[in-house]
Amino acid sequence: MQIDGSDVTVLPAQKRSIGFVFQHYAAFKHMSVARNVAFGLEIRKVPKARIRARVDELLQLVQLSQHGHKLPSQLSGGQRQRMALARALAIDPTVLLLDEPFGALDAKVRRELRDWLRRLHEDVHVTSVFVTHDQEEALEVADTVVVVNEGRIEQVGTPDEIYDSPATDFVFQFIGEATRLGPVQLRPHDVVIRPEAEGDGWAGRITRWNRIGFEVRLEVTLDASVQPGPVQVQLTRTEMQGLGIGLGDAVRVAAHLNAELRPV
Q1: Is residue 8 situated within a structural domain?
Q2: pLDDT score for 6
């Protein structure tokens, strides 16, 4: 294994200059937050004054300055994960590895930490490898996304490249939502829907309606000879209100002119 051009395969773990953030924090429960952050420096025999200064700097960076004296059990899940990140950064790693670091947190905290981690990288310039099964998380946090399927790399690219120009059917279906419309697959937000009398395309009927916040998700059932399953459609609430259609209405659906289309 090479890091920054150097082979570190035979080096002891503590000399590889790798920071690691676990999914479940892996905190030392009997140590304070400050001692947890200091641990990597202590085993490297760094002078105590430098350790104190580094710990203070990192606790301020991860917004935990007032919690340094507490035990990990006294922190919230998001705070514990920020502590774990500070501990990984303490040794000034060349590479930071994050193994599904937000997987154990609820959705709201995950979104907050994703925003926080992006901002943190503007201050701490360290190469990070972030492993996640959350597609939205990968697209939001990463500069470069690597999609892996059963140990094989399917595609490497920017979030825009991965989403807008998927290299394989697996990437297309794995990154973001996908639906079928007749002989092709496309994104649900690329399906154009209109009242039956006003639009062109496949004729169908709205058989499911689900509003999630600002978004409305529809299922449109076509004639079984055209397609056995429903077409998934995503619209904003404002778009839906403008169309004047509802559950049970007859509609027509077609692909947006600029939609990425893939044969079924």
Answers
A1: yes
A2: 81
**Single-letter amino acid, residue 249:** D
Question: Does the structure show a pLDDT above 80 at 25?
Answer: no
Q: What is the DSSP letter of 230?
A: P
**40 and 89 Cβ atoms separated by less than 8 Å:** no
Average pLDDT, the chain: 90
Question: What is the domain-level CATH number for residue 41?
Answer: 3.40.50.300
User: What confidence score (pLDDT) does residue 224 get?
Assistant: 84
Task: State residue 153's pLDDT score.
Answer: 96
Region 3-31: what's the mean pLDDT? 84
Host domain of residue 211 = 178-263
Place of tokens 């807008």: 164
Q: In this structure, what DSSP letter does residue 7 have?
A: E
- Answer whether 0.90 is exceeded by the pTM: no
Q: Residue 167 domain-assigned?
A: no
Quote the CA–CA distance of 239 and 246 in Å, as a whole number.
12
Look up residue 170 and give its two tokens. 């697996």
261, amino acid identity: L
Q: Is residue 118 part of a domain?
A: yes
Distance in angstroms (rounded) separating the CA atoms of residues 33 and 69: 6
How would residue 185 be classed by pLDDT, with cut points 50, 70 and 90? Answer: very high
CA angle 166, 170, 171 (to 5 degrees): 30
φ and ψ at residue 208, rounded to 5 degrees: -150, 140
Alpha-carbon distance values, 82 to 29, 67, 93, 134, 233 (Å): 15, 11, 16, 19, 38
